[in-house]
Amino acid sequence: MSGAAFGVLLVVVSTMVEGFGQTFLKKSAVDVARRHRWILLGIAVLIVEVLLYSGALRFLAVSTAFPITSLSFVMVTLLSHWLLGEQVTPLRWAGVGLILVGTSLIVAQA
Amino acid sequence: MPLRRARSYAQSARMSAGVRVPVRLAIGLAVAIALDTGLQLVWKIGVADIPDTSVRDAAVAVATNPIFILVVALMAAQLVNWLKVLDHADLSYAKPFTSLSYVTVCTLSVLVLGEHIAPLQIVGILVVVAGVWCVSVTKRTTLAPAAPPAEPEPQRAPVRRPQPAPVGEEAGVE
How many structural domains is chain B composed of? Predict the structure, then answer.
């Protein structure tokens, strides 16, 4: 695996991690009985995300890595739909599609 | 003096509620984009200086390099500023504007860091901005479900309020 591919992988994993972190933080507002546990879990996960993104910046230009982090919007949308049962409007699904197309174009040239 | 000061505060509060809020919001959004951009560039510069000999060396480099204090400070400033922005605007209104930082980060990474961006990547960044705009601008739906249709109220006869008797010169004003 090339350095650029490894960097892209790290950014993608960091956006997945951020998706879970945001979901945990949202859970803290819904599951009040275990609020502190969800907040701590959310913060721990976001620290992991910072480390992963820092690793990615070792292998990628910031002009490549940063736009790929927009995949976190995709992850948050998917996880909030699957795990939290939130409704997702057609416009938001269209946005998810555009982000996937845009990041694919950026990764293709990485 | 205290009375004058109190009047001044009251006047300032009225102005901030009526006139200054949009300006403050615009400044807050501009600061959010600027902090995001600064953070990404400083983070990239700091990470480039980390040695890749061992995890211990990397940890020591992060702990001793002041640029990472700046990274943390920028993250904290970003959080504080963002919370201030959300005091003045809904998330669905404010968030799409921050997608402009994808453009500013990439532009400044070319100008400051000398990075190269391929034409297809520029197209990709613009598509991402459009996508983030579509995702963010959507209003929340689950927490604020549409109100159930109200049952038609029975027609009531309009209540006739007694008209106040005209008093002196004020009688003809309204």
Answer: 1
